[in-house]
Write a structure and sequence with these properties.
The protein has helices spanning about 15-25, 60-65, 75-80, 80-90, 110-125, 175-185, 205, 245-260, 275-290, 295, 305-315, 325-340, 395-410, and strands at about 5, 5-10, 30-35, 55, 65, 95-100, 100-105, 125-130, 135-140, 145-150, 150-155, 160, 190-195, 200, 210-220, 225-235, 240, 265-270, 340-345, 355-360, 365, 370, 380, 390. By secondary structure, it is of the alpha+beta class. It has a 6-stranded antiparallel barrel with strand order 14-17-16-15-18-19.
């Protein structure tokens, strides 16, 4: 039986930031990580490149976080994007700013971020034990007393739960942290996959599998009413839709599907042209190529693999000559170019979700310290919290900031 000032469960970015900050303050810190190595999920973020953070302002960051980004104002005010960049740079990670205000390691390797954090914590003599699964939090009279892990009791007056969510369970974030918190009376807001690919009805998407679209506008329709839109890049898959803009809207879509609402998505393939300008272009192309078969004119407007699907939706005879295309048929072409429809009938599992929506209710946590309002000496950091944001480095910054705040708040 050994005594520690602080024990952290989870050696991801939130846990490592918490450990480093507490150790800087002179505390004896132990991290227990159930996987064989640290930071497994961090290594696969950003497709292995690791979108470290974003250069958005604190207010912009807060606006991107749901359900209540204001909870993070204290954490962001104490430790934000500049601080994590300075820390990583100091410990050997060169960082570059890319489009959308996104920061990445210059070498495009997430491992360099993990190595920097581990160098920092090692220098501060943080003890990390891998292969240690936390089984139970021990509390008495409303205060933390210790942890049982792998059958062994570790005594401490402070515990930080930084176990991650349920997404990418193969990396270790399989939801065990929620159960540890629930045992001590904490409420768990319903867990849902977020930043997750969407499944579609029919076989349209499947027929377009592998096709990537850039600079398109996606509109969400809930029960026939417009509910949001997003501009950028997407890709068709064997099950439906994925890519940056689909992942961005997925959290909202998942919630609407869980309410049993009807969700449709329409894709504007020509967002740079309004309907009037696009119609003039269609008329011009049809007139200039009057003797060409209608099936061939679509190559002027669409990617090759999309043409058969588009023609099937139109119900137009591809052998018809362009000068025979009626005004009504041209209007239908115009409509579909601006409103290619897909019915959303599901979403992929936590195995394919980048993050978890839902988690420990922030109403039960003090935002200025990240300490539980129910159990003294119990703190939370990172994805385990009921906080999530769109892609762009926002979710990792939540992990750094809440981890740092928790590590900065513990007391003996």
């Amino acid at each position: 039986m050994r005594n520690y000032d602080l024990i952290i469960i989870g050696a991801g970015p939130a846990g490592l930031l918490a450990a480093g900050r507490a150790a800087e303050r002179g505390y004896k810190v132990l991290i227990l990580e159930k996987m064989k190595t640290e930071g497994r999920k961090l290594l696969i973020t950003g497709k292995g490149r690791c979108n470290i953070t974003n250069n958005a302002t604190i207010d912009d960051f807060i606006s991107q976080v749901k359900p209540d980004g204001r909870f993070l104002r204290n954490s962001f005010s104490q430790f934000f994007s500049k601080e994590i960049i300075d820390l990583l740079t100091k410990y050997g990670t060169e960082i570059s700013l890319e489009r959308g205000g996104r920061y990445f390691p210059t070498n495009n390797n997430a491992a360099s971020v993990l190595k920097a954090l581990l160098r920092w914590t090692k220098e501060l003599k943080v003890e990390i034990r891998c292969g240690q699964r936390a089984e139970k939090l021990i509390a008495k009279d409303g205060a933390i007393q210790g942890i049982r892990a792998n059958g062994q009791i570790f005594q401490t007056g402070n515990v930080i739960l930084a176990t991650g969510g349920k997404s990418y369970p193969a990396t270790g974030s399989n939801g065990e942290g929620y159960e540890l918190a629930r045992q001590l009376g904490h409420s768990i807001v319903k867990l849902r996959p977020s930043l997750v690919p969407l499944e579609t009805a029919g076989n349209q998407a499947q027929r377009l599998q592998g096709l990537s679209l850039k600079n398109v506008n996606v509109t969400i329709w809930v029960n026939g009413k417009k509910a949001g839109e997003e501009f950028g890049e997407m890709i068709f898959t064997h099950f439906g839709l994925s890519g940056p803009i689909i992942l961005t809207i997925s959290g909202f879509v998942v919630d609407e599907l869980n309410k049993n609402n009807k969700v449709e998505i329409t894709i504007d393939l020509k967002p740079a042209l309004d309907e009037q300008k696009l119609d003039k272009r269609l008329q011009r192309d049809l007139n200039e190529h009057g003797k060409k078969k209608a099936g061939n004119i679509f190559s002027y407007w669409l990617p090759k693999t999309m043409i058969p699907v588009f023609i099937d939706l139109l119900g137009i005879d591809p052998e018809k000559e362009c000068h025979q295309v009626s005004s009504k048929e041209r209007q239908k072409i115009l409509y579909l170019l601006k409103n290619l429809p897909f019915t959303i009938n599901g979403y992929r599992s936590f195995k394919e979700a980048i993050i978890t929506a839902g988690g420990i209710s922030t109403k039960e946590i003090t935002p200025k310290t990240m300490e539980s309002k129910l159990v003294n000496g119990l703190y939370f950091a990172g994805e385990i919290l009921d906080l999530d944001a769109k892609t762009g480095g926002y979710n990792l910054q939540i992990a750094y900031s809440t981890g740092w705040m928790a590590g900065n708040s513990i007391t003996n």
